[in-house]
What we know:
The chain is of the alpha+beta class. Helix content is 16%, strand content 16%. It contains 2 helices and 4 strands, in the order ββαββα. It has helices at residues 41-48, 74-79; strands at residues 26-29, 35-38, 64-66, 69-71. The strands form 2 sheets. It has a two-stranded antiparallel sheet. The mean pLDDT is 87. It binds zinc ion (2 copies). Residues 52, 54-55, 57, 71-73, 76 line the site of one zinc ion.
Amino acid sequence: MRTGGFGKTAGMAVCEVCGNDYDKAFQVSTPDGDSHTFDSFECAIHALAPTCEYCNVKVIGHGVEADGHFYCCAHCASMAGAEGVADRA
Ligand SMILES: [Zn+2]
Ligand SMILES: [Zn+2]
């Protein structure tokens, strides 16, 4: 959990991407134990989604991870030279 922040009013949920304060903002926890507040999925994707290293799109599906690199699909991973990858269901 992070405390403090950017001089927010206590209790107010402020999107950390666009700064919108929104009463239906939601929090997303990441595997490293961080948590982030967003007002929309668009902002959450902007902040958290990995980018395909081959075609540069935001990976918002399952994606493929190979040797610490992220790709949107097995095709991109293989085009980028990663071996032995397949789309994860
Ligand atoms: Zn936002
Ligand atoms: Zn791709």
